[in-house]
Amino acid sequence: MSTDLVYVSAASPFSQEVFRRIRPGIPRERWPIDAMTVSFTADPSGLFLRASFDDNDLPASYAQQAVQVIAHAGVDLVVQSPFATMAAAVMRAKRWRDMFLFLAVPLLFGIPLVGAVLSRLMMPAAGLFLVDLLGLILVQLQLTRRKIAIANARCIAEIPVPGMRLQVARKKKKDQEPSM
């Protein structure tokens, strides 16, 4: 299986949001001099991120604290990350799986009840249950495939440090002409 690898610059909104979240817990004198390179993976559920500060000059205790803050940020940080699309696909597949699952239970118990009321409706009720069961199996396979894809995805992000100057590109308005 191939691993998806995405590089994110320090000027990106994701990197700036990570910096904003971890900045309060790390004293200024403990930050490295240059931008930190941090490896991110998403939890297969798509609900939070895991970070690895292994190759940085950040002390271990502060690195562990930053990892916890990033995991605690949860979906708020996942939405801004490169994993957002994959996490949304996992959530959609979970909703479909839950729908088929919660529909299967009443259908299963409804088969004998329908059979007791009118025997010729027992076969269509059983057929409806089997169609729902097939849908449940197919959606579960799709959910598993999407969880594997998000678990294999990696992101390397440069996290800015206090005092670092960032070149943030700004869009020019069409109405504004350069003045001479």
Catalogue the unreliable spans: none
The termini sit apart by 55 Å
Name the helicity range: 40-55%
The helix count comes to 5
Radius of gyration: 24 Å
Q: Which sequence of strands runs across the widest sheet?
A: 1-4-2-3
Order of helices and strands: EHEEHHHHE
- What summary fits the major beta sheet? 4 strands, mixed
Identify the quaternary structure here: single chain
Taken from the alpha-carbon principal axes, the silhouette is rod-shaped
Q: Tell me how many strands there are.
A: 4
Mean pLDDT, to the nearest integer, reads 85
Beta-strand content: 5-15%
The structure class reads alpha+beta
Structure, briefly:
By secondary structure, this protein is α+β, with helices and mostly antiparallel strands. It has helices spanning 13-22, 60-73, 75-78, 84-117, 122-152, and strands at 5-8, 36-42, 49-52, 154-159. The protein is rod-shaped.
Describe the structure.
With 180 residues, the protein is α+β, with helices and mostly antiparallel strands. Helix content is 52%, strand content 12%. It contains five helices and four strands; from the N terminus they run E-H-E-E-H-H-H-H-E. It has helices at residues 13-22, 60-73, 75-78, 84-117, 122-152, and strands at 5-8, 36-42, 49-52, 154-159. It has a four-stranded mixed sheet. Helix 4 (84-117) packs antiparallel against helix 5. The chain starts with a strand and ends in a 21-residue tail after the last strand. The model has no long low-confidence stretch (mean pLDDT 85). Keywords: Membrane, Transmembrane, Transmembrane helix. The chain crosses the membrane at residues 100-119, 125-144.
